[in-house]
Write a structure and sequence with these properties.
The chain has strands spanning 5-11, 17-18, 21-23, 29-30, 32-33, 41-42, 96-106, 113-120, 130-134, 138-139, 144-156, 163-173, 180-186, 201-207, 213-224. The chain contains no helices and 15 strands. It is mainly beta and 225 residues long. Strands 1, 2, 3, 7, 11, 12, 13 and 15 form an eight-stranded mixed β-sheet that branches. A hairpin with a 6-residue loop joins β12 and β13 (180-186).
């Protein structure tokens, strides 16, 4: 998180934190976030809207105890701007950066691989959302620890209602031989977003083999540019 962060979450085990996800299937699975009920739900990053009602919130900083609602965070813009400090035109014709990072352990199997994807959309059904970018399948050989980050620089304006931009990513496997770095590539699916409320983003992970695996997002955030 930094001074430009407008919405985001960090890893943890409580409400509005990213739990560790245990997966043992080749099905693409959305990243989830903790809830008050204890049952995780699909994690969406949505920039604040003009009519948003924001009560007590966890600070957008890994350097502050996330259990302390509204705790001050160094240079956090929420300390100096009204709440919420956005209106319906804030992101109309202005750049947004969406970033996610995480780590996990891929179950041991000679054919194991890991693919991370970033979507625009509001549906928990990934097929109903628009793919913005995806990593090349990270070949983990016989399984083991891996990490990744992905970043998309996005542009949307209300006249054409088209979202455009580009993305980059970096993914590592413990043996280093399977690590991948990809510089910015054009987003070609061009989501049609009819209102600022559609500036909603989610991510997913998919393993190439059904061996028991785990993954945990460390950060998922959106920033003003």
């Amino acid at each position: 998180m930094n001074v430009n962060t407008i919405a985001g979450f960090l890893n943890g085990s409580g409400r509005n934190q990213f739990p560790s996800q245990a997966l043992a299937a080749v099905t693409e699975t959305a990243f989830t976030i903790g809830t008050d009920s204890g049952t995780p739900t699909t994690a969406f990053i949505v920039p604040p809207q003009q009519a948003a009602i924001l009560g007590g919130v966890s600070p957008l900083s890994p350097n502050v105890n996330q259990a302390l609602l509204n705790a001050p965070a160094t240079q956090s813009q929420f300390n100096i701007l009204p709440d919420p400090p956005f209106n319906t035109g804030t992101f109309d014709g202005r750049l947004i950066r969406v970033r996610l990072s995480g780590a996990g352990n891929a179950g041991a199997n000679a054919a194991q691989s890991v693919t991370v994807r970033l979507y625009q959309g509001t549906s928990a059904t990934l097929g109903s959302d628009t793919l913005l970018g995806a990593t090349t399948a990270l070949a983990t050989v016989a399984g083991g620890a891996f990490s990744f980050f992905m970043e998309a620089l996005l542009f949307w304006e209300s006249t054409t209602q088209i979202m455009s931009g580009y993305f980059q990513y970096q993914a590592n496997f413990a043996n280093k031989a399977g690590s991948i770095t990809a510089n910015y590539a054009q987003i070609t699916n061009y989501p049609v977003v009819t209102s600022p409320a559609g500036l909603s983003f989610l991510g997913s992970i998919q393993f190439g083999n059904a061996a028991a695996s785990t993954v945990q997002l460390k950060e998922f955030a959106a920033e003003q540019v």
